[in-house]
Each structure stands twice: as structure tokens, then as C-alpha cells.
Amino acid sequence: MINRVVLVGRLTKDPDLRYTPSGVAVATFTLAVNRAFSNQQGDREADFINCVIWRKPAENVANFLKKGSLAGVEGRIQTRSYDGQDGKKVYVTEVVADSVQFLEPRNASGNQGGSFNGNQQNQGFNAGNPFEAPSQKPSFNDDPFGGTSKTIDITDDDLPF
């Protein structure tokens, strides 16, 4: 059987971090994911998907993401039920995240998060693996053709397509 989910969306509010009685961290958040099509009025609709993540990744999500942050979530769909206060059975469907990718720099949406080594942004940071190094974004000064005034002659025969 296969139960795999991959989502990219924005958080609708700050993550809610809690701890179980045994001290295990759990964070819940809702991800707004735009649909690929428009409705009859031409408006784009979104799905609001509840997500939960556990342990150290939960603490990372709570520390580095906030309302409006762009995030990628990978995990599985889980359904559960419980008896509500009125005695009726309540059914819950949520994504249990294995990992959360932070998909924009911390200051792009006003995030106040930081990185683990203090001199790199958390762009591309994997909340599911806090020991994975953040990806490096090349700077504009890394132009391999910069600093030369020569033109580059390319013919159609030089192109591979």
C-alpha cells in the first residue's frame, strides 16, 4: 500500500507547539495550498490542510516558520476519531509530516528564525533533518562570464538541441 503526500503552500497562522506529558514535542499547523485551476467565476481556490509534525522537527517548525511562510511538507495522510464534548464522534483527517522544507529565506515573509551555524540563512533547510546543511544560494557576483569584455560566439551547431 502507498500513502504518500507532498504539499507546497503557505501557513495560515503560526504553528502551535505543544508537548506530551512525556515531553515529546508536537507542532500543528494548517497549510493553504492553491488549486491548479480556477472556479467558474475565475477565482483560484485553496485547500486548507491540517498538518502535524513530531519531536525535534516540530520544534524547528515552531522556531523558524510563522503565518505566511512558504513550506513544503512530505508525509502521509492519517485519519482518527474521538468522542466530542457533545457525545458525537468527531473524525479528523490530517497529514503527519515526515519532513518540512523551508522554501524561502527567513526575511522574505518577515520570519525571525535563524540557522544553526549562525552565518547561513535557513533557505532550503530540512526540518526533518536538522543536521543537513542549508543549501547555498549563489550570489550575483558568482557570474562565470563576469569580468570579461569579450563576446561569446555561439552558432546553432554548438547547441545540443
UniProtKB/TrEMBL annotation:
Motif residue range(s): Important for interaction with partner proteins: 156-161
PROSITE patterns the record matches: SSB
Single GO cellular component term: nucleoid
Keywords: DNA damage, DNA recombination, DNA repair, DNA replication, DNA-binding
GO biological process, alphabetically ordered: DNA recombination; DNA repair; DNA replication
Low complexity: bias regions: 117-129
Region (Disordered): 106-161
Any Pfam family hit: SSB
Molecular function per GO: single-stranded DNA binding
Keyword Repeat: no
Function: Plays an important role in DNA replication, recombination and repair. Binds to ssDNA and to an array of partner proteins to recruit them to their sites of action during DNA metabolism.
Quaternary organization: Homotetramer.
HAMAP family hit by this protein: SSB
Protein name as it appears in the record: Single-stranded DNA-binding protein
Protein source organism: Gottfriedia solisilvae
